[in-house]
User: What shape does this take?
Amino acid sequence: MKRVGVVGGGQLARMMIPAAVNLGIDIRVFAESENSSATLAARVVGNYRSQQEVSAFSSDLDVLTFDHEHVPTDVLIAVRDQGVVVSPSPEALTLTHNKIVMRHKLADIGVPQPRWSVAGESRSRDESLSAVGGFPCVAKKPIGGYDGKGVRVITSWDQIGDWLDDGDVLLEEKVPFVRELGLLSARSESGEWVPWLPVETRQLDGVCAEVIAPAPGLSDQDVAESDFLARSIADSIGVVGVLAVEVFQNDDGRLLVNELAMRPHNSGHIFTELSVTSQFEQHLRAVADLPLGSPAFTANAAVMVNLFGEIPEDSKREAWRAVPEAKIHDYGKEPRDGRKVGHISVVGSDADKVYARAIEARSFLSPR
Amino acid sequence: MKRVGVVGGGQLARMMIPAAVNLGIDIRVFAESENSSATLAARVVGNYRSQQEVSAFSSDLDVLTFDHEHVPTDVLIAVRDQGVVVSPSPEALTLTHNKIVMRHKLADIGVPQPRWSVAGESRSRDESLSAVGGFPCVAKKPIGGYDGKGVRVITSWDQIGDWLDDGDVLLEEKVPFVRELGLLSARSESGEWVPWLPVETRQLDGVCAEVIAPAPGLSDQDVAESDFLARSIADSIGVVGVLAVEVFQNDDGRLLVNELAMRPHNSGHIFTELSVTSQFEQHLRAVADLPLGSPAFTANAAVMVNLFGEIPEDSKREAWRAVPEAKIHDYGKEPRDGRKVGHISVVGSDADKVYARAIEARSFLSPR
Assistant: This one.
């Protein structure tokens, strides 16, 4: 039985547990607190920035993988030097530490992305701004942003004065997209690469609120372009595990890469119910160097909606009674402003009905 | 978050873990050994016959439930007296401790069953034998049999001489059945009752080898009779949790009750991939008094095949490569003669193809 360690005790680690149980993988989690979402599999509660703690946790593992990208590169390299497989690799993960580094890498690979530039002390503001088509544009802190945090649409430099004091800021053109897609795929050590069909993600206040799978109205060309784009990135970076590529689709159908993640991703939760192989299972297969599973969909349509705030037990009951086919995933997390605490998936044959049922189930549980 | 304890660390407890994770239930297992199949959720390793140990395990639980029926009734009653919900109840579970007690109960309920009698010291052998139609008949040890153990088809008294020395033996007519069905359903505390469609189970040497879902050629009347039979038993016994009723179907279509289990059952494993709600999830919902989930099937056809003996890592890889849609469940158990160590599920639109693919996947893994 392969021993796979996961750094991070969030919902992504939590949702790897069912996949590990079914695959017969011995999963162990390095959690950041006693009450982590993945506490069932927690072996260690500690600080993932400590080389000593992560190395001790890894000492009897076959593979180390991740629920988040925040483990320092030198810690990862030290674990690899112990003889433990680190997947995705320290070199690949490092790209996700800094959005400016990522933009450079994507430019090297040659995949289409929004126009971008770097604003900072040593640069000309006019040049940075004109490179992204002027205001309004999107400003991103290069390090540490997520779920809308560290991202601002700006119309003047004042609006990021605080960030510019700290260092460089990534500027991106405000893309006139018609929708956003999630391109989920997995790549194994041996280079096997398996994509799911693209999904449509719908954001509210910069946070994913709904995912429609498959993305409505996908043409064969959309799928072919999506696959080419995702595979180019996966192969060039040498990703091992799930790769999530968030893209903008413009009104001419063109795809532009927004963000990357080298792990299971919120936009892929729906595959747990919709696909023969969930993203959590596929990630574990990839990092444990098992053959990848079938990404085929077992139904025509599916919708995932995220839950925020509290999930009161009574409301959950009401939702289940009203929509018995709803799969309500409760991450066991303390509610905090804007924090995802669960999600609902509904699968069926008719896309409109499925959407309506998911929204109905959500109406009991989430005010948004 | 409800705290649900499971006595027994076998594969049934193991497969409750994914369901608990998704539902947001805090699951804890009372295992019988350090290397149990459900070790991930094991909180205690101990002796389930010890009232003290089971009571200590139960002290901070909301609900106690089971992976097997072997916990002594007085231990269960003591736990209930502590204020912990025991589901199914000690009174219901007790019926499964002794096959003769169960036959009496089924006779009281009035559901059809094979002709049966009790052979023992104080009884007339001729009367016992003629009650079941003479030799050949089926002899069963009343206590402790499973998977073909404790069951013999006999043509003379000599063949159960050893058992008769120990006490009463259950005799049953050898039913000329055309097939065996598994009737799986769940009942909650509030009396809500939800069945899945009947499945066909195929035995080899008294052990379930294959399950076909739904059972081929089910008529509306078959389903109505199955539902009536299962619900009569569930309501009469007051089962809370999953109830598995194994029945013989005769060539005239008539159903006769063979065995009962008040827990998830091998014949229901296929619902994990086939149904909106797996039997493990439904069992947890029932015992935690949550609304029951939809038992709808998400595909036309599915097949489960059991695995025996070793599951070599390389063979698993070969099976996955050949049949990427196969879900191979590995219980993480040491192989022993005749012991189930895993199963494979395949789901699809065409029953014949699904069967062929399941058998193909099995060919890499199980010699039988």
About this structure: The two ends of chain B are 43 Å apart (CA to CA). The first helix of chain B runs from residue 11 to 23. The domain at 115-173 of chain B is CATH 3.30.1490.20 (Dna Ligase; domain 1). The interface with chain A takes residues 1, 14-15, 17-18, 21-24, 26-27, 40-41, 276, 290-294, 296, 298-299, 311, 316-317, 320-321, 324-325, 327-332, 342, 347 of chain B (CB under 8 Å).
